[in-house]
Automatic annotation (TrEMBL):
Signal peptide: none annotated. HAMAP family: LeuC_type1 (MF_01026). [4Fe-4S] cluster binds at residues 351, 411, 414. Its EC number is 4.2.1.33. Belongs to the aconitase/IPM isomerase family. LeuC type 1 subfamily. It comes from Achromobacter deleyi. It is an enzyme of class 4 (lyase). It holds the Pfam family Aconitase. The keyword Metal-binding applies. This is 3-isopropylmalate dehydratase large subunit. Keywords: 4Fe-4S, Amino-acid biosynthesis, Branched-chain amino acid biosynthesis, Iron, Iron-sulfur, Leucine biosynthesis, Lyase, Metal-binding.
Amino acid sequence: MPGMTLYDKLVASHEVARIDDEHILLYVDLHIMNEYTSPQAFSGLAARGRQVLRPGQQMAVVDHIIPTHPVPAALRVIPDEASSRQARNLKRNCDEQGIALFDTTDPLQGIEHVIAPEHGMILPGMVVLCGDSHTTTYGALGALGFGIGTSEVEHILATQTLVYRVARNLRIRVDGRLPAGVSAKDLVIYVVHSIGAQGARGHAVEFCGSAIDALSAEARMTLCNMTVEAGARAALIAPDATTDAYVTAHAPQLHGAELAQARAYWATLHTDADAVFDVEHVFDAASIAPFVTWGTSPDQAMPVTGTVPDPQAEPDALARLALEKAVDYIGLQPGAPIAGVPIDRVFIGSCTNGRIEDLRVVADVVRGRHVAAGVRAMVVPGSGAVRAQAEAEGVAAALIAAGFEWRQPGCSMCLAMNDDVLRPGERCASTTNRNFEGRQGRAGRTHLMSPAMAAAAALAGRIVDVRDLEQTR
């Protein structure tokens, strides 16, 4: 009998019951909620006269709809009535059920996928679910995380379990060293571009290789966060010394004998040498350049040195139609270089790139320089803790001096559910995870890239290769 993958081990350790050949009842260690995917679930519980089974294994946060205006945290308000009602409903539900909530005026409020790891809520070996697709982030710490729907939220609140269809296994090995100026964000856009938006559909993806080993814990979160853009149902990296250092630094509740026991368990969380994967891909890190999206799907991307594809060169009629639609929406000419395209806005933040490491990189690029005339550039930290740390380190001061807006935390322009919105036709260099039509505002145009690349675009007023900018210092 072949060995088990890391994914297989995590699923097996949380299997409550086998339903059929494809489905199990999965135990959930931690369930995270936000203001817009939970209301119907609480209503469903109330209609059935049920209570939350295990309130201590739930956490909630207001993050998607909250404005990010730079006012003190204690003075933050949500002026839009519909959005304010969502936040009030979440607070009422959490108060009634005894669920921890990072509310609007909480100084530690932030994006759910930033808050949970930084407060030591995510440990290797856990199953963590949330009504948000980028819950795959937690695989960076060796936890199985994935997004769920509203009806599933209700099921978890009532039973702390989920009826779960087991995924297939896919491994991505990345060996070598990422070149200077190339980050985990470039790597994940490259991977999504290489295997396609459906390349990991139905699979749990495990990353391995020397390039992955070299990534920091926060860089691994970026990688796992965006793997869902290739259709992955989960993304995982086996725990190692980097994981241990991050978790123990952020989870002081683990100490002494309990920490020793946890470490012994973490050491078992790896794929067996004789395990078999359904699909495998191998990439060379040294061959990767800074990547930029040109279209309306995260896989429609290219090196910053590339040119916009010509739809007429695509032989498949359906694929050609999709390319034509994307090129038309994004407003670029086939064959034109992506470098040099003027931008109007720059957005740095989100659950993909709103952590302290990301903001440090941006500060390093812009220090002593200034945002180009006519460009509105904003930085939205991923959490109150990140914001405070950036201010303590002088990162925020460097950003402000360079002409960036320094905002309060939230999802912000990642999906434009508040008033951080692109106007029709505006073009944005963005560190977010999706460049769909209208994602950042109706008729807005989004180019996904790394924090360093977005910072360089802000300074130049156009898409540029950050490696060229660094050579001018």
